[in-house]
């Protein structure tokens, strides 16, 4: 991945070829200088740049050495050999990299890049749930803080959540913090669901097969509706709709395919359709377009993650120049959190 060019002109030409139609040419020319300088500095500092699938196209297709979803980037972070890891994603992702590779310097190229899901729950919340439902295994979506990971039994990503839940062989589990992902997992595994915001375990539910969910939601994916799909299908009948499982279960049910970001990308690559509608963060839709120029991917997304958008080429350059923002994780939290993340990685 990334642009391996020896001159500024080569960098600009490669960017124009890759990003034509997605990024204005005048912007490409301006950003090519940033890209060239970042790549030069990266080599000098023996740094590895990781880019999440939600990064803006001008960054995603130029400076990362590796791109992918949370699961894939976690695996890469664990074995990264550079002296510095620059994580182009949100803060919980950079924390996960530090948990898995604690001896490396991990940089987040933004002053703050949070996540509505990560901010919806704390370690104290998890401890209270454990006290309320003693003995139940706790599955925590990787979109959470290191403190929360330290209080859980096993983490999961959107792409392996079902496999993680099945691996526990438990009649009841606590699934945190994404309510919609928990519901979609419950549907796929045939379990019932109780949301903890109800403040009680549903005694009428089949407690032999139950997921107890938190009330967190992704502020991007909760905005998609079934009406969005219906309206597009009316205009473009032969459209395959690809959805992220952080979306409402009704939206997932109305879609043709739903999974984590990397599996969404693979689905578009491996299928043939007249049109595609990608219901997830807009930058990822742009990145799929860049990788599949021969396919008609409808550019109707208007929802961008305000946190992911904090990561810019300017920020990456500043991060490398000034060794900012360095990520630190308390040693005790790091050790306990690593156990839950390692268990997730073992599932695949």
Written account of the structure:
The structure is a single chain. With 348 residues, the protein is of the alpha/beta class. It has three domains: 8-115 and 308-322, NadA-like (Rossmann fold); 130-218, NadA-like (Rossmann fold), CATH 3.40.50.10800; 221-291, NadA-like (Rossmann fold). It is built from 15 helices and twelve strands. The protein has helices at residues 8-19, 25-45, 57-60, 70-79, 91-100, 123-132, 146-150, 161-167, 179-189, 226-235, 249-254, 261-270, 282-291, 313-322, 331-347; strands spanning 47-52, 66-68, 84-88, 105-107, 138-141, 154-156, 172-176, 192-195, 210-213, 239-243, 257-258, 275-279. It has a five-stranded parallel β-sheet with strand order 6-5-7-9-8, with helices on both faces. The chain has a four-stranded parallel β-sheet with strand order 2-1-3-4, sandwiched between helices. The protein has a three-stranded parallel β-sheet with strand order 11-10-12, sandwiched between helices. Helix 7 links the parallel strand 5 and strand 6. Helix 5 (91-100) crosses helix 15 (331-347). The longest helix is centred in the N-terminal third of the chain and has 21 residues, at 25-45. It is globular, with a radius of gyration of 20 Å. Mean pLDDT is 91; it is low at 198-206.
